[in-house]
Design a protein that fits this description.
The structure is a homodimer.
Chain A lengths: L9 H23 L4 H8 L3 H13 L3 E2 L7 E2 L1 H23 L4 H11 L5 H13 L4
Antiparallel strand pairs in A: 1-2
Helix pairs in contact in A: 1-4, 2-3, 4-5, 4-6
Chain A binds a DNA duplex (30 and 30 nucleotides) through helix 1, helix 2 and helix 3.
Chain lengths: ~140, ~140
DNA sequence: GCATAAAGTTAGTCGTTGCTAACTTTTCGA
DNA sequence: TCGAAAAGTTAGCAACGACTAACTTTATGC
């Protein structure tokens, strides 16, 4: 396995954070009708300054729109990314639970795992959930 | 699932990199008897300057020892961490392959996933590899 | 054995993701 | 209504992990 290509660099890490944020924003809007910085402060347990920073980056990258002192809105691209992330997240979590992992642990692990699961692995999970373990 | 606690911060990311490095160093020593910066340059496809940087951090953190222009050595702590990482990595990779994922994809995905798998999930994987899928 | 290639080091820069501190704006209750 | 609490903004700092460029040291091939 020499010459494996590692691409998990700062760029990948950055887009993981972006996915977590748009997912949280979409969830909050679905739950409460709007998403405020403070919702994300609580969700991620970071300071308001950090959230502000990150939101500015998401806006720069065209995933959200904000207006001073107004709730955060997702762009069409942001909504698409959120939907894709959520779906992937749900598959991973369901799969972990089907493995016999407790829902609490499945929730925590799926947060971390979801960003590293390829399409092929995701398809394998979906297939196993539907048709059972390969024989 | 409100109030989920996210701890995947820069600190966690840093320790992921540390694990990848000690694992690669241990593998290289096992293969070729010693590990040089250039081995890591090739392995991670980054520049020598980046490797140097990272190795300095690993040394600061007590995972490796280095001497100018000499091969990189693991400390006892470094070896323990490398062994634990490798074992976890192997379990994840075997599990993915057992799921029907191609070895190539399993290799790539397990690199990313291994850092986010809890003890409980790892145990579930081990159990399924041994006893089959839970009914 | 000496020139050159390979390996390693050092210095400086950038972007991300955290933080604190100080400030402004908005909201709400007495 | 107005004053304090909550929310949001801005500025400045630090660690990490990446880079380039310039340099030194070691190894290698004639």
């Amino acid at each position: 396995m020499a010459e494996r290509i590692h691409k998990r660099t700062r760029d990948d890490h950055a887009s993981e954070v972006a996915e977590d944020y748009v997912e949280a924003i979409a969830d909050t809007i679905a739950e409460k009708g709007r998403c405020r910085s403070m919702d994300l402060v609580r969700h991620f347990a970071v300071t308001h300054a950090t959230v502000n920073n990150t939101i500015a980056r998401l806006q720069r990258d065209g995933l959200v729109t904000t207006e001073r002192y107004q709730p955060i809105e997702l762009t069409a691209r942001g909504r698409r990314l959120a939907a894709a992330s959520r779906k992937r997240h749900e598959i991973v979590q369901s799969f972990l639970e089907a493995m016999g992992v407790s829902p609490q642990t499945a929730a925590i692990d799926s947060e971390g795992i979801e960003h590293h699961v390829s399409k092929e692995t995701l398809q394998a999970m979906t297939r196993i959930l539907k048709d059972g373990w390969p024989t």
